[in-house]
Design brief:
Blueprint lengths: L2 E4 L3 H12 L5 E4 L8 H4 L31 H14 L6 E2 L4 E6 L4 E5 L4 E4 L1 E4 L21 E4 L13 E5 L3 H10 L5 E6 L5 E3 L7 H9 L1 H23 L3 H15 L5 H6 L12 E3 L2 H5 L4 E5 L2 E4 L3 E4 L4 E3 L2 E4 L13 E3 L6 H4 L18 E3 L12 H22 L1 E5 L1 H15 L26 H9 L7 E5 L27
Parallel strand pairs: 1-2, 1-7, 2-3, 4-18, 7-19, 8-17, 9-10, 9-17, 10-13, 11-12
Antiparallel strand pairs: 4-5, 5-6, 14-15, 15-16, 20-21
Length: 505
């Protein structure tokens, strides 16, 4: 069977590694960028780093002792994934600078159109595109008239010298906070245009000394212990952010409020105080943002931007700010998933038609009318509260089990629409009981106010992905000599061979 994955970020590479370990060789990973790493390749803005601890932000089967800081920068994380691709001999399966433009189900397999004009075919198609890869530009009157340099934070123009310049920064999320920390001392003036204040948790980004890294590298068991320790910490924080753990939520809120007390000016402090429950938006991890925002060369403008002129930005308050550079830290289209790739499934049904009322899937992995198509991190995505690499690993294991059934029985499967509809209703009802169902606005919530991210805890996610392939949840059609309706509901979805821990060097 020929397997094609789309995206060579952490999820796509991890899936490829597991394929390789199980003995699969006929697979390819298409990557639209010039190297692997996904979001860590595309985001190169000053100060870019992960807001999850380095020792927990890695493959569970491939910890590393080379992390230099508690929270690693983008370059170090990208290099980790590049090393992992080489260590596990997956790099040879990655085709760079090739974007999958369209995929059409022919009745037995997928026909793919690639950006370079070529065609490919796949018996199994797997999306590993992630959710933070299609940039979102703000709709600001006059933005196109700005005569200075303007670019999105995820498309940072390194040819632009910002030293000594007047810089405007639109946005107040994680990327914006990291940029403020990195460039405040470099620019003559920095104006932060904040539409909504953020809850910010202070965490010092400690350096790991050479002796510590050497010790971790010499004794891999220490790496695995560190991973398990940070795994527990992150899952506990996730429980607090969702509101499921009241005690953890209270502790996080108290820590954020104590951090906010570092702001001395009462007017500025009021501007920086969120008016919504903690956890509604993604919690921001920072070390010295509040210190930087109080510098004399920094201004915070609260509210919307009225317009952009050729030389300035005019705030809704009427204040005009002459600027040389304008940076748009305005996030991503989190609900795009595999799109804008065009997908045509069974009976000519398109993915846009299936998702007319919003992205849905069967436990985040498969979509009605799309036979033998699987997703890593599909809707409802769990990136808001669970460990993204670990959840992708768990989904990879489940998908590999599905693939084994498909190969052995020569079948095409996709989830039944009524089953998916019932799951979505359950998820939405559960979402209303979390912090995301309390009327706040964030990219975790769709335009109807419905949480579209995973509302359950890690144990539920684990049960979902480890559950056997349930025959009555799928439409099953034979593709060969073997009938497709004789599958056993008790069949396990686990791969026959587990990965043994290895160190990415």
């Amino acid at each position: 069977m020929r397997i094609v994955a789309i995206g060579a970020g952490q999820a796509g590479l991890g899936f490829g590694i597991k394929l390789k370990k199980m003995g699969h060789s006929d697979f390819v990973i298409y990557e639209k960028g010039h190297t692997v790493g996904g979001v860590w390749r595309e985001n190169t803005y000053p100060g870019v780093r992960c807001d999850a601890p380095s020792q927990g932000y890695c493959y569970s089967f491939a910890p590393s002792g080379l992390w230099k800081k508690k929270y690693s920068g983008g370059n170090d994380i990208r290099r980790y994934f590049e090393r992992a691709a080489r260590t596990f001999n997956v790099a040879q399966h990655v085709k760079l600078n090739k974007e999958v433009i369209s995929a059409e189900w022919t009745g037995k397999r997928w026909k793919l159109e690639i950006s370079d004009g070529t065609t490919d075919f796949a018996d199994i198609l797997v999306s590993a595109t992630g959710v933070l890869h299609r940039v979102a530009y703000p709709d600001i009157p006059g933005l196109e008239t700005f005569e200075g340099h303007v670019f999105h934070s995820a498309e940072w123009d390194h040819s632009v010298d910002i030293d000594g310049k007047a810089v405007g920064l639109v946005g107040a999320g994680s990327s914006a906070v990291q940029i403020v920390e990195a460039i405040t001392d470099r620019v003559s003036k920095l104006v932060v245009f904040q539409r909504t204040a953020q809850w910010i948790l202070k965490s010092e980004n400690a350096n790991y000394p050479f002796w510590y890294r050497a010790l971790m590298t010499l004794f891999p068991v220490l790496q695995r212990r560190a991973y398990k320790r940070w795994e527990a910490v992150q899952l506990a924080i996730g429980g607090g952010l969702s509101g499921r753990s009241k005690e953890q939520a209270a502790q996080l809120l108290q820590s954020c409020l104590e951090h906010l007390d570092e702001v001395e000016d009462p007017i500025l402090k009021q501007k920086l105080t969120p008016d919504y429950p903690m956890g509604c938006k993604r919690l921001v991890i920072a070390e010295k943002f509040y210190e930087m925002i109080q510098r004399p060369n920094v201004s915070l403008e609260n509210g919307r931007i009225a317009k952009v002129t050729p030389t300035s930005v005019v705030a809704e308050s009427g204040q005009e700010y002459p600027l040389d550079v304008l940076v748009l830290a305005t996030g991503f289209h989190a609900s795009a998933y595999v799109r804008p790739m065009r997908m045509i499934g069974e009976g000519g049904c398109t993915l846009d038609e299936v998702w007319a009322d919003g992205p849905v899937s069967y436990i985040g992995m498969s979509v009605p009318k799309m036979p033998n198509f699987f997703m890593l991190g599909g809707p409802p995505n769990a990136v808001n509260q669970l460990m993204p690499i670990l959840t992708a690993e768990m989904q990879s294991d489940a998908i590999l089990g599905y693939i084994r059934h498909i190969a052995e029985q020569k079948i095409a499967i996709h989830p039944r629409q009524d089953v998916v509809r019932a799951l979505v209703q359950e998820q939405r009802a559960a979402g209303k009981e979390t912090v995301w169902g309390q009327g706040c606005k964030s990219w975790y919530i769709d335009d109807k106010g419905v949480p579209h991210f995973y509302p359950f805890d890690f144990e539920r996610f684990k049960r979902d992905t480890e559950a056997p392939l349930l025959v009555d949840h799928f439409e099953i059609r034979s593709l060969g000599d073997h009938g497709g309706n004789n599958m056993r509901a008790s069949s396990s979805v686990f791969p026959t061979r587990e990965l043994q821990p290895e160190t990415v060097k």
